[in-house]
Amino acid sequence: MKQIVNAGPTIVVVEDEDGNKFGGFASGAWEVRPQFHGTGESFLLSLRPESGVYRSTGYNSNYQYLNYLHNNTMPNGLGMGGREELFGMFLSDDFGECQVAPSCTTFHSPQICPNRSPKIRYLTIWGVGEEAKDSSDEEEDGAAKPKKRSALDTNADATAMLDMIGRVRASDGLREPDPESD
């Protein structure tokens, strides 16, 4: 789990012992904390036995969850959607358990795997974007480096993934004027 922290957007795919495949797209970097985070560009997916992409309902903002801080009472593992104890998809921090909910209020999804507690055969996580920037992105004199990219450009791979599934950002084509171009 430590390998995906601040590693940018990811695609998580699980294959269970019965050959079912399911997972999700996390549009933001994973952060270790006992709360949900992420954006509505995230989604759950099922590949086998049936395929489907399940987008945000807008009902809540419980998109991504990553916690392995054993000194608290929150679940330790990786989750997407739903709520504590009823995640759309949840992988325990030791990858010994997987749980899927019968439905998910965060994503308009049915149960994404026929088994509610599938046994993991394979787990694959692909990074599909730039890694998150940290506070060390400073110039030698301690000043922050100037940001030259628009917020619309910060996640080109996530934007490409959204285009592949037929979703576009409402703000595409809109830009603030560049003060240096005057």
Automatic annotation (TrEMBL):
UniProt keyword Membrane, yes or no: yes
Domain of life: Eukaryota
GO terms for biological process, alphabetical: response to oxidative stress
Region (Disordered), start-end ranges: 131-157
Keywords per UniProt: Cytoplasm, Lysosome, Membrane
Localization (cell): Cytoplasm; Lysosome; Membrane
UniProt domain TLDc: residue ranges: 1-129
GO cellular component: lysosome; membrane; nucleus
InterPro entries attached to this UniProt entry: TLDc_dom
PROSITE patterns assigned to the protein according to its UniProt record, in alphabetical order: TLDC (PS51886)
Pfam families, A to Z: TLD
Signal peptide limits: none
Database matches in PANTHER family: MTOR-ASSOCIATED PROTEIN MEAK7 (PTHR23354:SF131), NUCLEOLAR PROTEIN 7/ESTROGEN RECEPTOR COACTIVATOR-RELATED (PTHR23354)
Listed name of the protein: MTOR-associated protein MEAK7
Originating species: Hirondellea gigas
